[in-house]
Specification:
This protein has 4 helices and 4 strands. By secondary structure, it is α+β, with helices and mostly antiparallel strands.
Length: 170
């Protein structure tokens, strides 16, 4: 197993952030040139059979004294295995906050005992495909309280998770 290096993760998060900003610019340019094209419907997608997917997000607001990290781990059927919202003091640079969120997600999965991980993949997705994790991050940022849920859907994201599960079967 590779040794986890926070500096490398921060660099990867910064690179992903720059790629995301570039993709937004390209989408804005495309929207200006093709206003009648439909926007693709984005939503959470399940992992492959017999695997887990951990989504995480960070909420950093300039007026808050906290920033929050939200993590939700689901199986291939969309069932919530575990979820967490973590609050941290301060207002870091968004890139640093994203790197901390990635570190928290990795540590949370390790603490859950998830083993035989074939690969880790980090990719930026639009909020519509990551609403549950964002809702948890926002809850942590607003309340300043850490919470963990095991095999239950957190109330704050219940409706989102149910809709995403329903979308998997239709």
């Amino acid at each position: 197993m590779e040794k986890f290096i926070p500096k490398a993760l921060a660099k990867e998060a910064e690179t992903e952030w720059q790629l995301w900003e570039k993709s937004i610019e390209q989408q804005e340019d495309k929207a200006e040139t093709a206003p009648n094209e439909p926007t693709p419907f984005l939503r959470w997608t399940a992992p492959v059979y017999n695997t887990y997917k951990a989504n995480w997000d960070v909420s950093v607001k300039p007026v808050s004294r906290h920033f929050g990290v939200g993590i939700i781990v689901r199986d291939y059927m969309g069932q919530v295995c575990a979820a967490s919202c973590l609050a941290f003091e301060g207002r870091p640079d968004p890139t640093v906050a994203e790197a901390m969120g990635a570190l928290c997600a990795v540590e949370f999965c390790r603490d859950l005992g998830l083993k035989n991980i074939m690969s880790w993949r980090m990719e930026h997705v639009r909020r519509a495909a990551n609403e549950a994790a964002h809702g948890l991050a926002r809850a942590a940022e607003i309340t300043g309280v850490d919470r963990i849920w095991m095999e239950e859907v957190p109330e704050v994201v219940h409706d989102i998770v149910v809709l995403e599960q329903f979308a998997l079967i239709v």
